[in-house]
Amino acid sequence: MEKEKLPIEKDVDLEFEYKVYGIYDFLKKHFKFVLAFLLLLIVISGGLYYKNQVDRQNREKASLHLSKIADLLSENKLEDARKELENFKKQYGNTDLYKVALAYEILINKEENKENKEPAEKLKNELKTDLSSGVNEYLAYLKNKEGNSKEAKEILKSIDSKKYNYISAQTLYALILRKEGNFQEAQKIFETIKNNQNYRYFSLLAKENL
Known about the structure:
- 75% of the residues lie in helices and 0% in strands.
- It has 210 residues and is an all-alpha fold.
- α3 packs antiparallel against α4, α4 packs antiparallel against α5 and α8 packs antiparallel against α9.
- This is Ancillary SecYEG translocon subunit/Cell division coordinator CpoB TPR domain-containing protein.
């Protein structure tokens, strides 16, 4: 008697069918595990979506607070601006807009003739671009004003020629040297700045100090 053949079509991919049935068999045996895993993925995805929505809303609210601070500063309402700033720091101190608030705090301090290093130190650590170089220069200015000229000079020396504020930092460095009595070294720096016509203001300032 002729042995019965399996009803397989000529073009059927046996390997593919074997894989499909293998997957089906696995799902059937581990249905609860697979279902729990899928539910976990859905929960995680939903949680991430919710977090992104909350972050976006917080950012929008934080932006409104910063806009209000800017308006108060433009109207020279420094006391109100500082109150709004303190509220911002309590509510949105963990957002990426915190660095803007720190910059406003520095401005308010300058307007009130309060020279506080703390916001500048924090802002320097928050900034990831060359703008941190400008904050470093401001910190050097504050440290020198406090009488810590050694640390001020170290900060200024870290601002190299590639930085946008190199010339202004060098000017401050030379002024500190002259104040310390190091006239020869200060004169060298002032001569270099004087010959740099790309920075006319600092060139003229250097001439005044030669």
